[in-house]
Amino acid sequence: MLELSSNRHNPGIDPALHAWGWEIPVYLFLGGMVAGLLVLGGFHILKGRNDPHAEAYPWAPMLGVVLLSAGMGTLFLDLSHKLYVWRLYLTFQPTSPMSWGAWILLLVYPALLLAALLHPPETVPFGDAVLARAKVWSRWLRMRPRLVQAIGAANLLGGVSLGIYTGILLGSLGARPLWNSAILGPLFLFSGLSTAAAALHLLSMLSKRQVKGQFGDALLGGFFKLLDPKAGGEAMLRADTSFLTIELGIMALWLLGLLTATSVHREAAALLLSGDYAPAFWALVIITGILTPLFIQTAELSGKIRHTAAPAVLVIIGGFALRWILVSAGQTSHW
Amino acid sequence: MSRLAMVIDTALCVGCSDCVVACKTENNVPEGYCRDWITESVRGEFPTVGLEIRSERCNHCTDAPCVSCCPTGASHVHDFGGVVLVEHDKCIGCKACIAACPYDARFGNPEGYADKCTFCIHRVEKGLLPACVSVCPTHCMHFGDLEDPESEVSKLLHSRPNHTLLPEAGTKPNVYYLTKG
Amino acid sequence: MNLFSRRRFLRITAGTLAAAGLGPALLGGPRARAAGLGGALQTIPTFCDICFWKCGAVATVRDGKLWKIEGNPKDPLSQGRLCPRGTGGIGATFDPDRLRRPLLRAKVRGEEQWNVVSWDEALGFTAEKMKKIAAEYGPEAMGMFSHGLGGNFLKHTLKAYGAVNFAAPSFAQCRGPRDVGFRLTFGDDPGSPERTDIAHAKCLVLIGSHLGENMHNTQVQEFAQAVANGCTVIVADPRFSVAASKAKHYLPVKPGTDIALLLAWMHVLVKEKLYDVEYVTKHGYGFEQFAAYLEPFTPEWAYPETGISPDVIRETAREMGRHHPATLVHPGRHSTWYGDDTQRSRAVALLNALLGSWGREGGFYIPSSMELPGYPYPAYPPKGEKGKVDNPGKKYPFAHEAISTGIREATITGAPYPIKGWLTYAVNLMYALPNQAETIKAIEALDLLAVVDVIPSETAGWADVVLPEATYLERHDDLNVELFRDSFIALRQPVVPAPDEQKPNWWIAKELATKLGLERYYPWKDIEEYLGHRLAKGGYSFDELKKNGIILGPKVPRTYEEGVEPTFETPSKKIEFYSTQLQEKGFDPIPKYTPPDPVPRGTFRLLTGRAPTHSFSRTQTNPLLHDVMSENEVWLNAKEAKRLGVKSGDKVRLKNQDGVVSELVKVKATERIRPDCVFMVHGFGHTSKGLKRAYRKGASDSQLQTRYRTDPLMGGTGMSMNFVSVELEPS
Lengths: 335, 181, 731
Fold this sequence. Notes:
The structure holds 3 protein chains of 3 kinds.
Chain A: E1 2-6, H1 23-47, H2 60-78, H3 97-118, H4 128-142, H5 145-171, H6 184-210, H7 214-227, H8 232-259, H9 263-273, H10 278-301, H11 310-332
Chain B: E1 4-9, H1 18-26, E2 37-45, E3 48-56, H2 65-68, E4 75-77, E5 84-86, H3 96-100, E6 107-108, E7 114-115, H4 121-124, H5 131-135, E8 141-145, H6 152-159, E9 162-163, E10 175-178
Parallel strand pairs in B: 1-10
Antiparallel strand pairs in B: 1-8, 2-3, 4-5, 6-7, 9-10
Chain C: H1 6-20, H2 30-34, E1 41-47, E2 56-62, E3 65-71, H3 84-87, E4 103-105, E5 114-116, H4 119-137, E6 142-146, H5 152-161, E7 165-167, H6 169-186, E8 203-207, H7 217-228, E9 232-236, H8 242-245, E10 249-251, H9 258-271, H10 277-283, E11 284-285, H11 287-294, H12 299-306, H13 310-323, E12 327-329, H14 341-355, H15 404-413, E13 421-425, H16 429-432, H17 436-444, E14 448-453, H18 458-461, E15 465-468, E16 488-490, H19 505-515, H20 527-538, H21 542-548, E17 550-552, E18 575-576, H22 580-584, E19 604-609, H23 623-628, E20 633-637, H24 638-644, E21 651-656, E22 665-670, E23 677-681, H25 701-704, E24 709-710, E25 717-718, E26 723-728
């Protein structure tokens, strides 16, 4: 029996670490989804001329910009010394994933904006003059295939970096045994990809039912076209199924890694597998977020059941739960 | 080069918390927070009990994860003695360093920056001992340069059994605890 | 200001500093600013008042604001290092809960409803009430309770008024039994600060005395020194105390059986002739009877009583014998446990006598103090026929100080004569005296309860008038001229001004005297004139004292070896192994063991003690000390906790044998305590609404101590007589 007591009582530290509240999981979730959108978008651009649906891809990068901004907003909200945030961009700290992330986030913006510029929408509810100018630039860009390829590559690379970084951010913190694995990088990337595919999928489902008005029509109609089961939609469904399968595999490897490491790592894994966080982990992440959508999507693809929005919603719930639970449980885990 | 270290004799420490209070007054640590603290570790079954009392704080690790994870360089290793410090005006309050410390030695100062023990570098640079060491009624705390084989801390570590906290975390801490024997 | 051995440290760092090319250049940077450095520093020596030890200290004021306080290296008590309470003492000055202005009771007593009034009104009210009491019942009906040096001037005013009943709970609720036990044996008491030469002890025996947790600075410093020097520490305690963790031998003695253990130890020492034969022969009286009396008290006899195996008793007795006379059996301090405490303390004294430690190095040194005449005041009014109320008819024949609970009893009963007014100074009677209901009953019989204090204690909550005192860092006090290893005169002087309308006790005492028409008893204008006069008469420099905080006396011999002539102020003029004066008064001439009351089923004996970060019930709102310890816990044996289904951190209530239920208190389930008792630190669980920061945090042992057993020798109140059950909160 070891009996430990301490008179330390620092807020946010004791009795268990609580440095990060809701902001960081939300940021990691949004960042992951943006990473997925970047990868998917970049992939489409690279496929370029050969893809008959590439023209129908105007809003994904714009959605990415919105989500990225929201994510950076929550990240900023989390900072406790906000006035000094500019300090991030006076330096580059090669050992700090946070520093890498700050720069990646900054570089991802132009990539997303350029991708958006490649396919400007036909109409917008306001700012027609800007749109007109954008269309001029867009034409200019599209006349330069190598530049288009470069933008595609930048989106793909940016997406992969962003996705991996959101995982490494936690994985590099050796003080928290639950997080302490580089495999969190690919895990978060594939989770991001699955949530991005699900988001696109979901929007396409919604667009079929209740799209009203010109702007909404343009927004969701584009996705509908992209995700039409007869065209790119089925591809997206297949992609999502692959992402989820890979995510599940990586998750298994990660937990296996923890279970075969030191006792503190085993205790950390136990937090998820059998401890305080187990109900949420099993119910939300594994069953709701991965197994059920996999099952439904497989059935859908084989034509056994009708196409619904359910798997997409579940994947998004699962992707968010993964980050929420990991951030919370990871802070509880300790040496 | 020099390597400042603290050597604390658990055989003498009574856990009175004078070190904690002195740190609070010396460094104006805000109410409700502490940069050092007392941990009591009890092993055995009554009445055959072993009690180790430790005055704990930032370990000023040689491989400090709080420094390597800092995105702005606010968390840094001071040129003198390898002391780990935080430059308040560079800290953005991202809390990565707080999560990176296996000892939970850091906290968010209410003013926003990451805060922790400085080994009282402002005193040390004047030739004074850290406040905690200077007040300890049991004289159980020692401070000095490990690079100097003649220093009190070097000699104590050579002559007495000792341990650091969580050596398995691989951070190479520089606060040592002498044990009985 | 370098308060540490600079030479030693510079040897370590000077080279490295120079090599790094750093040093002062770095100061004043942003980090330094953040650490709050810079600014005009001023250091002022004074002495601490967070406990009665009165350590010499040096306060640092930065830009007029109190920054920190450290030990005064010139002071023999602190030796340059304060305890945590002393270091955190500055918190008392910025405690938001402290009293600010004089208060007059607005409604019913105890409801803590006040009118804020001027000093003139508050003191006028007090003086009028006192005059009325004197007129109706005589000035003897006015009693005073105080703690510490700060009460001197108020006592002077009350003596001038004609009061005779002055008491401090530090006698009947604390060290009284110990002092009497030692007086009966050696003719002198262990003193305060205790005359224990712990630093040089080769064997130190602690019986329930938890040095390190009770933070009497010099003692703890010397304890650590002794441990570092390899002193054999023997601890007998129902709880595995911090001191026990430093011990070679830990004896988990059953509560209330210490006398059995002491008798068995003495039996072994005598039987095996391990005692100091020469010392005992030369200085002892009645040793033959004593030795014969010990015959049946073998370790085997003591085993079922104490739970300590005969082997361990023999081994520890031999350890003591091996190291004598440098074996110090610590006299303890808070010794009011079971009602037979004087006899237990006498047994401790006798064990020391056997080991020859009294007057010897590593035992009890002979203290000295400086000679300093008092202020030449006019003579007090002649005392009447009535005498004092606390010990009528010398009911407790060996009480040499007034019994606080005796005054309380007289207040309730009106016998031998009524007590109608209480003035309290820096003492929270509600927490210091056992059985709060009796204290309230007494208060309700009063015409006047005037409370002088720094914080709104529970007792202040019952007062008619509350007089807010400046903290020790904001006032002068009388000089500290104490009996100690080294003699000295120490000065308390203000470091910062009081923030509101708080006044120093000397001012309150002087103004009250003026309102009573007794101004002739205060011939001095202010305290500096008083102190200057005393010092000048003694031939000392006030300026030097202001500058250094302390004047040291010459070194004098402190042990018999160094040449002190052994004298014993007992009837036989010797160390009394057999006490004829006890025998004459019908008490046991040699301590007798009586088994303690059995612990009722389903309950635990409530034991209490100290934490190093708090003094009594006086410091719980101090922001710095509250930060380190904000509540107490109830220590419960880990297996008992498991049986009851509670774990560390769970909140429970304790219910005592009389149905009194405590505030919610956290459980500390631990292997560090016997299964038949629980332990908590005294002074928490405050119910005074004014003590906002500490209000209802932790539990109050005082509230649960409804029962007490009075020591027939001196009137001390044994309080470890209460049994509690652990009541789980329905979740």
